[in-house]
Structure formats: structure tokens, C-alpha cells
Amino acid sequence: MSASAKLPIYMSATDFLDWEPGDGLRYELVDGEPRVMAPAGTIHAFLQNELGRRIGNHLLERGRACEALSNPGVTPHLLSAHNVRIPDLGVTCSPLAPGQTLTDPVLLIEILSPSNQAKTWSNVWAYTSIPSVQEILVLHSTRMQAELLRRTPEGGWPEEPKQITSGELLLASIDFRVAMTDLYARTGIKFG
Q: Domains in the chain and their CATH numbers?
């Protein structure tokens, strides 16, 4: 996009999903404003791919009727007419439907990089408004750490995410387990 090109000032989710900016950039819609998404760094991209591959293989091996998707559009229920957020990974156990957004995600995953912290936590807050979401994982790209929010049996969310820096990462929504050291093994990031 040229320096003089202007983004639309305010859009509905419907307009956003039909919009073609033609500038080669990726966007998500945040409270009616298109927001450019920076390209992922190498560790961010590796973790996204590695975790997506492991989850996808797990779902296939278990014969679960769930699918893992990279960069799916999701519509928060909070201000849904003006928001289309893009997590790094999403899992749904509903049949895949044509369209541009993932219906009924049970698990949403964000990879946290130093340059996207505010965006990531803004998205996490929006994801908590989606009734089908059971877990939200934030995986760090600069250190071996995961932060996990799991919906309570009463339907609420904890005040703080569970911090995981060693041992096993358990995603109960899809009965998936992975050792943190295995997940980060090829990144060059060491424990501690």
C-alpha cells in the first residue's frame, strides 16, 4: 500500500470479509478498524507450525471429528458486527463450513512475540466472549513459557492464566499433551 493510500475508517464485519485491499498485507478487524498484521518471526512461525502439526496429528490419530486450522478468522460475540480476529491456530469440533470465519472454535492459540503483546492480549479478551471456546493458549516465542486460560465448569474464566514453564502442556478441550521441552526443542530456546 502506498504511503498515501488510506484504510477505511470504520467497517462492519460483513464489509471487512468482502474487502480486498489489494496491497498484499494481512488484516484483522478490531472494533471496526482494519488492523495490519505483521509477518511472523521465524520462531513464532515455527511454533505455530509445530504446534499445529502436533495437534492435527493428535486429532487424526484419535479419530476425533475436530480440525486444527492456521490463522482462522473468528468472530467474537462481543461487538460481533465489527470484529473479525485472527488467532494463530484454532480448533473446532463442528463440521467445517464454507465461509471466512471458523464456527464454534473450542480452542484458540496465539503465539506471543515482543512486537505483538498488546494485540495478542486484546484478542484473548475478545476470545473469552465466544461461547464455544473452552481454552485459550498463549505460547511465548522468546522463552519456554505458555499461559493457559481454561473456562470453568460454571462457564467463567479465571482471573489470571495458568503459567507453564516446564513439564507438560495439557489442552483438556482436545485431550492433547506435549512436553514443553519437546515443543521448543528445535527453537534454540532453553529451559530456564
A: 40-187 (3.90.1570.10)
